[in-house]
Amino acid sequence: MNSTEKNNRVFIMGEIVSEAKFSHEVYGEGFYELSVKVMRLSGQADILPVTVSERLISERDLKVGSTLCAMGQFRSYNKLENGRSRLMLTVFVREPLDAPPARNPNSIVLSGYICKPPVYRTTPFNREIADLLVAVNRAYNKSDYIPCIAWGRNARFVKNLQVGDKIALSGRIQSREYQKRLSEVEVKTMTAYEVSISKLAAFDSAEDFDLEREFMLYTGTEKAEPHPEGSHSQM
């Protein structure tokens, strides 16, 4: 596994809840987008966008109601909507798995760079939250821009990070609905996707930081449950 593959690893398992729609073609192979319902440990569900090749759809007979269990990457791309560029996110399936049901069907490990000043705030109930955007290198000099959200002590740690700082993190991908006001009378329900951080670390040198050892991809087969507020460190 090369460094750009280590930087961005996702494990998901859930039920396909939408028909596959054509997305794009690369070197003659078609890729399709579909929605996958992934259950949280709490019993709630996230509906996540997933991109999968037509070859895998055919080989695995993927359809509405099927279970998708796979390793992949969380990727971003820009889509033009109403003359404006919008950041789109998707789980890109790289390897389907024949895995037994895991306790945690949604796990992600990322390593990248802070590319916007983190936004720290508190809720009316005094819960601390910090939003950050992480640029994750991909092969062929591409990058994915992944929105992340930190809570509690992780949020306090994040608010002191600077643009350009290297960080590694683990957590899960979540979907969240919000209301966007289009006019005085029109409101549209939108869905945002982001990584909810359970553990993070800032580090200076990739040579001195073992990402795989520090952030093992959690697929539910491990015995330790992640702490709800996670942990942080400065490497």
Automatic annotation (TrEMBL):
- What keyword terms does UniProt attach to this protein? DNA-binding
InterPro entries linked to this entry: NA-bd_OB-fold (IPR012340), Primosome_PriB/ssb (IPR000424)
Query: Gene3D superfamilies, alphabetically?
Result: Nucleic acid-binding proteins
Q: Does the keyword DNA-binding apply?
A: yes
One GO term in the molecular function aspect is: single-stranded DNA binding
Q: Does DNA-binding show up as a keyword for this record?
A: yes
Q: Which NCBIfam families match?
A: PRK05813.1 (NF004476)
Stated name of the protein: Single-stranded DNA-binding protein
Q: What is the lineage of its organism?
A: Bacteria, Bacillati, Bacillota, Clostridia, Christensenellales
